[in-house]
Amino acid sequence: MYDIAIIGAGPAGASAAIYTAKAGKKTLVIDSDKGVTKRAWFENFYGIKEIDGPSLVDIGIEQLKKFGAEYVQDEATDAAKTEEGFSITTAGGQTYQAKHVILATGFSVELGQKLGAAVKDGTEPRVKSIFDVDAQGRTSVPGVWAAGTAAGVSVHGIITAGDGAKVAINLISELNGERYVDHDVMKPKE
Q1: Spatial separation of the C-alpha atoms in residues 142 and 139, rounded to whole Å
Q2: N or C: which end of the chain has fewer CB within 10 A?
Q3: pLDDT digit string, tens, across residues 60-96
Q4: 31 in helix, strand or coil?
Q5: Cα–Cα distance between 181 and 158 in angstroms, integer?
Q6: C-alpha distances in angstroms, 3 versus 15, 47, 101, 187?
Q7: Alpha-carbon distances, residue 97 vs 41, 75, 172, 183 (angstroms)
Q8: What 3 state SS string does 157-179 have?
């Protein structure tokens, strides 16, 4: 069983996975490889002069794997509450178990609705529905969190990436029972 299953590996999902895996949480990322970031071009992403969306997604996947997250390219098609957490089934016929779920599903709220997560009207153009989340990223279903566009933040990649990190830090903090901080520092030159 995974501590955390993250649905989606765009900027929100990958950022969340980088933090959860780096914090030592057993993390699974299920990604359909159909996210809108794959069609994007970035010249306004802090720290990057310019990059195409597919390359940004690929780097994010490399990073989350570096910290130990398991990545599965498949579409999460069904989800259900279980005694110990949640069961997620994919189009490829696999079923995964996790104690917590982060929905970073972009424009889609369908999977979260299967779990009973409340939705409301979206505020961004072309975003019809979003999950109704609190300031930490919790949905109406205990153990189910949402990040990025699906949680109602701006569709801009840098904003969804930050939101994914925020939600991950809040979930890690809840699991650890104290505020989690992840600040790396450069090693001094010798």
Answers
A1: 7
A2: C
A3: 999 999 999 999 999 999 999 999 999 999 999 999 9
A4: strand
A5: 20
A6: 16, 31, 9, 31
A7: 35, 15, 18, 30
A8: HHHHHHHHHHHHHHHHHHHHCCC
